[in-house]
Amino acid sequence: MSVKISNLSKYIDILSDFGWKFYFGREENKGNLINFLNSILEGEHVVEDLTYSNVEEDGDEPNERKVIFDLRCVGVGGEVFLVEMQLQNQDFFFDRAVGYTSRTISRLAKKGKKGDNYELPPIYFIAVLGFRLDVANSDKYFYSGKIIDEFDQEVLYPKLSYKMLVLPNFNKAKADLPTILDQWMYLMKHLDKIDKLPNYLDKRIFSRIFELGELAKLTPEEQMSYISSLDRKRDYTNTLAYAKKEGQKEGQKKAEAKAYAEKIASARELKKSGVSDEIISKSLGISLEVINKL
């Protein structure tokens, strides 16, 4: 069955469920994930190679629901990477991240326990987010956290790391991408507007994305899966846009009601002061009928 793709972008959208797993979750494309992780961990850790693990994890009790990670990988040194792409706004996202890593730590401790030895491998929780973690901090697009001493900022436990990229806060222009991480974030936000590998992206890192990411190279079955993934993403985007629009309408109504109430209060004070109804009506824009009833 043929699939109509002429109205779609040339390259597969990374920020779709299909695209995320296509670029980062396939064994033959894991070099992309390694490059992406190294751009986030630069100066802290180098990922030389990794293997994909089961993304599904059971709870401690039979009635507990499963936790499913977008990507779960183990590096050659045993380090664990929990990698997520989350576009939908999540309340208590930090709680969720801590819960996910805690469950992983619990599993690793049980499997690796030898006498009193509870040594754990490094664990990295990495998330690409389509919503703001802190509305008041709209310029911060990279969060990096560890367990530290609150008095002198010394890292107490270096093996547990949280790295979060906030795409709505990333607004750099293509002429201002000094780091590979900046380039990854720019690509994620703008791939749908690019028709070839541009010179402002490092060819050593991104050439593979442009080689394999052409939508026309997918099989018809893969194209159908991709389009379904885009439909789900668009449905969510449209739902957000509608909710925002309705929220703006409601906010406008409340603002108008508040302004009117303030005018009425002012009119009452002016009447008490002996100002004529006609002058009050003209100065405040309130009908004489309303003022007469005050």
Summarize the structure.
This is Rpn family recombination-promoting nuclease/putative transposase. With 294 residues, this protein is α/β, with parallel strands linked by helices. The protein has helices spanning 17-24, 30-40, 93-112, 180-190, 203-212, 220-272, 277-284, 288-292; strands spanning 50-52, 56-57, 67-68, 71-75, 80-86, 123-129, 142-148, 155-166.
* Cα radius of gyration in angstroms: 27 Å
By DSSP (H or I, 4+ residues per run), the number of helices equals 8
Rounded to the nearest angstrom, the distance between the terminal CA atoms is 73 Å
- Compute the average pLDDT: 85
The order of strands across the largest sheet is 1-4-5-6-8-7
Can you tell me the overall shape? elongated
How many structural domains does the protein architecture include? 2
- Number of separate strands: 8
H and E string = HHEEEEEHEEEHHHHH
Specify the biggest β-sheet: 6 strands, mixed
Low-confidence stretches: 58-67
Strand content: 15-25%
Explain the overall architecture.
By secondary structure, the protein is of the alpha/beta class. The protein folds into two domains: 17-217, no CATH class; 256-292, no CATH class. The protein has eight helices and eight strands; from the N terminus they run ααβββββαβββααααα. It has helices spanning 17-24, 30-40, 93-112, 180-190, 203-212, 220-272, 277-284, 288-292; strands at residues 50-52, 56-57, 67-68, 71-75, 80-86, 123-129, 142-148, 155-166. It has a six-stranded mixed sheet with strand order 1-4-5-6-8-7, sandwiched between helices. Strands 2-3 form a two-stranded antiparallel sheet. The radius of gyration is 27 Å and the shape is elongated.
